[in-house]
Amino acid sequence: MYFFNGMKKATEGMKAMRTQLDVLTNNLANVGTAGYQKDALSISSFDSVLQEKMQDSGFAQMGGFEDSAPANQSSLHLRTVTQFQQGTLKLTDNPLDLALNGKGFFVVNTPFGVKYTRNGNFSLNAEGYLSTKDGSIVMGQNGPIKLNGDNFKVKEDGSIYVNDKFIDKLKIVNFENLQTLKKQGANYYIPTAESKMVKSDAVVKQGYLEGSNVNPVRDMVAMITIMRGFETNQKMLQTEDEALRKSIQTGEMR
Amino acid sequence: MMRSLYTAATGMYAQQMNVNIIANNLANANTTSYKGERVNFQDLLYANMNNGNVSVGAGVKTAGTEKVFSMGSLEKTDNPLHAAINGNGFYRVELPDGKVAYTRDGNFHIGKDNELMIGKGKVGIKIPKDVINVRILKDGKVVANKADDLKDITLGQLKLTRFLNPAGLKSIGGNMYVETQKAGERVEDIPGKEGIGMLVPGYLEKSNVNVIEAMMNIVQAQRAYEMNSKGVQTADNMMRLINQLKR
């Protein structure tokens, strides 16, 4: 029954708006999280591509077959995209706070495998190694970094000096396809097969933390747009419903 | 039902914590040697949908608070038993229960058993009854002289302790901190040596809370709170529209 197509499209639109709001509220909630990179939702229409392909193959000309096309014909293709942009560096005066200026990630050995982060809010674990606040070890080029001394300096190229003695260089990596990285929570990212690790030329600033790159004004305006988009789709659904009701009534009179 | 409702709520809660911490800092804007605190945030776990094409987060959580150990400004008091620390380091004291604590508070006084003390903690230097003019010198020596003699007698040597990660110390109130694993290695020496700061007699270190900066941070936290509440409202409006679909 082809008139259900309109309702399906409106529902897909509403679902997309709802997911869009999920992404936006997550950005806004993390407006103060160190090293947080904002997400955006890309919405593209799937069926326009499919319709073209169907007409080319002569399938649609067989008459009345539009609704027996693949189930997701009128669905929207949603994809989250992390927008990697440098956040503002904030001075904290804590020698164990490190920030990256440029593209790159710190490498962290967690109990669940190697993860990557831009959050340089570091501390010491029980054995005296440089670690994240949840106890996972931060990696240098030669492995974990033991801080036995009372003076800890990190130079801009990532080299670490304890009591003026060179210990190791921080391991900082970048990825060629940043869009293939997945967020894991607790400010961590993990790569996928297509990420391709490359060298990073980011500069390390000691005593600074990178703020989140969320643009609240943009996200607030986007929320208004979503709300209106949602309302429009809802009205469309109601109109379709009304049209259906009228046609049923009309049928009944016969 | 509406994930964004809960996500925005986590944002509001986090900003509320933020305001609480900043308000506490402001309340201690005049506490001697007080060190301000800040909150650290982390994003929550992400859910993968649509074959992993869509990854949505669940909001934010507070990952803990930490003290900021920047120096406060020095205030002249002209009290010979006041000595602020200019630079890195903490005074080491022994509390009445035997615990060792560290403090930046340079407000010394002579306790009832003639012990030189900071607050309730003993520094480990005894002041004999027959001396006058007890003062602290900038290299940490505690000197005095007898009533009939102008010559200085050294009563003891104050030492300072420096930590790799002062933010890892645990605050127990009263300007006192206890050592933890996170504070890292410590080095004890006389003031002026090995990167340890010098003492400034006759001065006290004020709170390091910058009131203007704190007010600015509170305003920002308030606006962030409002923005997250708008997220809650929008989610609520969406749910209302969904409910209105069927009449």
| Helix-and-strand structural type of chain A | alpha+beta
Strand content range of chain A: 25-35%
Largest sheet of chain B: 6 strands, antiparallel
Strand ordering within the main sheet of chain B: 16-17-8-7-15-18
Please count the helical segments of chain B. 2
Could you estimate the helical fraction of the residues of chain A in percent?
25-40%
β-sheet strand percentage of chain B: 35-45%
Low-confidence stretches of chain A: 59-72
- The Cα radius of gyration of chain B reads 26 Å
What distance separates the N and C termini of chain B? Answer: 21 Å
Tally of individual helices of chain A = 3
Helix content of chain B: 10-25%
Q: Which word captures the global form of chain B? A: elongated
Shape of chain A: elongated
- The residue ranges of chain B in which pLDDT falls below 50 over 5 or more consecutive positions are none
Distance separating the two termini of chain A:
21 Å
Number of strands of chain B: 20
- Kindly state the mean pLDDT of chain B as a whole number? 90
Describe it.
- The complex is a heterodimer of chains A (about 250) and B (about 250).
- By secondary structure, chain A is of the alpha+beta class.
- Helices cover about 30% and strands about 30% of the residues of chain A.
- Chain A has 3 helices and 19 strands.
- Chain A has helices at about 5-30, 45-55, 215-254, and strands at about 40-45, 75-80, 90, 100, 105-110, 115, 120-125, 130, 135-140, 145, 150-155, 160, 165-170, 170-175, 180-185, 190, 195-200, 205, 210.
- In chain A, strands 5, 6, 9, 10, 14, 15, 16 and 17 form an 8-stranded antiparallel β-sheet that branches. A 3-stranded antiparallel β-sheet of chain A has the order 11-12-13, with no helix packed on it. A two-stranded antiparallel ribbon of chain A has the order 1-2.
- The longest helix of chain A has about 40 residues, at about 215-254.
- Chain A is elongated, with a radius of gyration of 26 Å.
- The two termini of chain A are about 20 Å apart.
- Residues about 60-70 of chain A have low confidence and may be disordered.
- Chain B is an alpha+beta fold and about 250 residues long.
- Chain B has 2 helices and 20 strands.
- Chain B has helices at about 5-25, 210-245; strands spanning about 35-45, 45-50, 55, 60-65, 75, 85, 90-95, 100-105, 110, 115-120, 120-125, 130-135, 140-145, 155, 160-165, 170-175, 175-180, 185-190, 200, 205.
- In chain B, the strands form 7 sheets. Chain B has a 6-stranded antiparallel β-sheet, with no helix packed on it. Chain B has a 3-stranded antiparallel β-sheet with strand order 9-10-11, with no helix packed on it.
- In chain B, helix 1 runs antiparallel to helix 2.
- The longest helix of chain B is centred in the C-terminal third of the chain and has 33 residues, at about 210-245.
- At the A-B interface, helix 1, strand 2, strand 15 and helix 3 of A face helix 1, strand 1, strand 3, strand 4 and helix 2 of B.
